[in-house]
Design a protein that fits this description.
This protein is 86% helix and 0% strand. The protein is mostly helical and 58 residues long. It contains 2 helices and no strands. The chain is elongated. Helix 1 packs across helix 2.
């Protein structure tokens, strides 16, 4: 159970940072742009987590 909670927390951390950066660079957004940004941030968060796991020595 703990590993799952850590994975979710890591994903949400990455997603929050990436979504905030996207909003910072894009500026004012409408609904469609918000959905695209949230999806792109989710894909980036998954990639960041996978990359971190790939180089992890644990």
């Amino acid at each position: 159970m703990r590993a799952g909670a850590v994975a979710v927390a890591e994903f949400l951390g990455w997603w929050t940072v990436l979504a905030a950066l996207w909003l910072l660079f894009i500026g004012p957004v409408d609904g469609a742009e918000l959905a695209v940004g949230a999806t792109a941030a989710a894909l980036g968060a998954l990639a960041a987590r996978a990359a971190r796991r790939a180089v992890s020595t644990r």
